[in-house]
Specification:
Layout lengths: L21 H14 L12 H8 L3 H14 L2 E4 L3 E4 L28 H13 L20 H12 L15 H15 L8 E4 L2 H12 L5 E6 L3 H10 L2 E8 L2 E2 L1 H7 L5 E4 L13 H14 L2 E5 L23 E6 L11 E4 L2 H15 L4 H12 L2 H27 L5 E2 L7 E5 L6 H10 L5 E2 L12 E5 L5 H22 L8
Parallel strand pairs: 4-5, 4-7, 7-8, 8-9
Antiparallel strand pairs: 1-2, 3-10, 5-6, 9-10, 11-12, 12-14, 13-14
Helix pairs in contact: 1-3, 2-3, 4-8, 5-12, 6-12, 7-8, 7-11, 13-15
């Protein structure tokens, strides 16, 4: 195995003007590189001899600069380990902005079709927050992936079955589809065979595939209000007619859909844990939705969001188990394992399963087979279900810490939405508070909250914040609540503040 390279290169130093004071320029260039994050704490610099040779300057000049920056605390010299950036420096890399500014037109600007602007907006809306307190869907560090996953990964990748090869079945690895079908049968009351399972790169791809297979341009569809931005982005891109149905304590209001557009071709719903508010779809609403689908030969697209992470009682059974012939079931491993795995699945009725496989083949053929082999082994050997039990207990503890901290500190007029499931808590704000502005201020302060008012179609939208807790330790959550409440109180004061708490 080759030795890991420990000496970094610093391209920005090549701009030094050798006709001026070289030492002063080099010192300032190194300070700037550290401040911008090009050089990070603990990283090793080239030797004085090699840096002098590459810049074509005297070695003595480089030695003087290193000595000066060491005295200033930017660098530290270790016997036998060379010169490195000081390890006690703060990481000064700026956090990415909530919404990147649009660059001004330039000579290199190009004419793009109208849909490009929409796709730019979608890219910005779906760009994840940095992994700082309250970021959504950040897994617990050290828990996912666990030691069993790493061990299996090493074993599977060393075997011939996961060796690099040609293209594979767009439906996914058969061993993984068998494991998924067995798991959802036992855990989610889903009725399916492995031939109905299509492995995807997560729920987002599953939503897009469902739209491509089931819908034509201008078809009417139902969607929740508020709804997952990734869903509304897909439906906008497909050019369908969205009818947004309000969400109340029982979930999506099916009766309103029957009034607005009974002839809709599909309903997109998160029945186990509504995104973003959190309530389940009531059994009466489930039955009404299934009756509508049966009578109109329509489809129900069930995004089984966060179904495994319920902290009181057992997870709600899926809608697919009530009517397998009319329901497209979407699942993902992102929340219970880790989002960067990029593996999920669609379970489709047999008559349309092959069409979903065709949609998958058009998009990107299939998911990486090595990761599918690892996941199949992880599920087959019982580690997946044990992992779910473990994180359910861990996340329940962190959720309780966050709820307790919020209860002690929240200003009058703010309220936590009741929910016993998922990896986030929804905090309702007084109507005069701008949740988008508050989220931007919080991000500047190192907190990644998510505003929900942009997820509504109806206006005026209700302001609120989603607070993720899964990937953060209790002390981090408690400190983050203090900082958030400070920002919230400042904004409420500037807005005039409510006179009393909401009922």
């Amino acid at each position: 195995m080759s030795k890991r390279r420990s000496i970094i290169e610093i391209p920005s130093l090549n701009a030094i003007d050798r006709t001026a004071n070289v030492g002063r320029q080099l010192a300032q260039a190194l300070r700037n590189a550290i401040a911008r994050g090009e050089l990070r704490s603990g990283e090793r610099l080239p030797s004085t001899r090699s840096l002098a040779a590459s810049l074509k300057i005297a070695r003595g000049t480089v030695v003087e600069v290193f000595d000066q920056l060491t005295a200033e605390g930017y660098l530290e010299a270790r016997v036998g380990a060379g010169t490195r950036v000081a390890t006690d420096l703060m990481d000064t890399t700026p956090a990415p902005p909530l919404a990147p500014a649009v660059p001004p037109p330039s000579a290199d600007a190009v004419d793009l079709p109208s849909q490009a602007a929409r796709l730019i907006a979608i890219a910005r809306a779906l760009t994840p927050h940095p992994p700082v307190p309250f970021a959504i869907a950040v897994p617990a560090c050290g828990i996912a992936p666990d030691d069993n996953w790493r061990r299996l990964g090493n074993r599977v990748r060393a075997s011939r079955q996961a060796a690099p090869s040609g293209y594979h079945d767009p439906m996914g690895l058969l061993e993984l589809r068998l494991a998924i079908a067995d798991h959802v049968r036992r855990a989610r009351a889903v009725h399916c065979e492995p031939e109905q399972v299509i492995v995807t790169s997560g729920t987002q791809q599953g939503l897009y595939m469902a739209g491509r297979v089931l819908l034509s341009r201008d078809d009417p569809v139902w969607a929740e209000d508020p709804a997952y931005p990734g869903l509304t982005a897909v439906l906008d891109d497909l050019g369908v007619q969205m009818h947004r149905l309000p969400v109340d304590a029982q979930g999506m209001n099916v009766e309103r859909g029957l009034e607005l557009c009974p002839q809709a071709r599909a309903a997109f719903v998160t029945p186990s844990h509504q995104y973003p508010i959190g309530m389940p779809l009531s059994m009466a609403r489930r039955n009404a939705l299934i009756t509508w689908a049966d009578q109109n030969r329509a489809w129900i697209v069930e995004d089984d969001y966060d179904s495994e992470l319920r902290y009181a009682g057992h997870p709600f059974p899926s809608m697919q188990g009530l009517r397998p012939s009319r329901v497209i079931y979407l699942g993902t491993f992102s929340k219970v394992l880790f989002p960067s795995l990029r593996l999920g699945y669609v379970i489709a009725p047999s008559p349309v399963a092959e069409a979903f496989a065709g949609a998958r083949a058009i998009l990107d053929r299939h998911s990486p087979t090595a990761e599918q082999h690892v996941l199949a082994a992880y599920m087959r050997e019982g580690y997946f279900e044990a992992h779910i039990r473990r994180i359910r207990g861990l996340y329940a503890e962190r959720r309780a810490v966050l709820l307790s901290a919020l209860e002690r500190a929240l200003p009058v007029g703010c309220r936590v939405q009741q929910s016993d499931q998922g990896m986030h808590i929804l905090l309702w704000l007084p109507k005069e508070v701008d949740d988008v502005q508050l989220a931007a201020r919080a991000l500047s302060a190192g907190l990644a909250v998510r505003a929900i008012s942009p997820m509504y179609a109806a206006r005026p939208a209700r302001p609120g914040l989603m607070l993720g807790f899964g990937g953060f330790l209790p002390d981090q959550l408690q400190a983050a609540v203090g900082e958030l409440v400070k920002l919230l109180s400042q904004q409420m004061s500037a807005a005039g503040g409510p006179q009393q708490a909401e009922a």
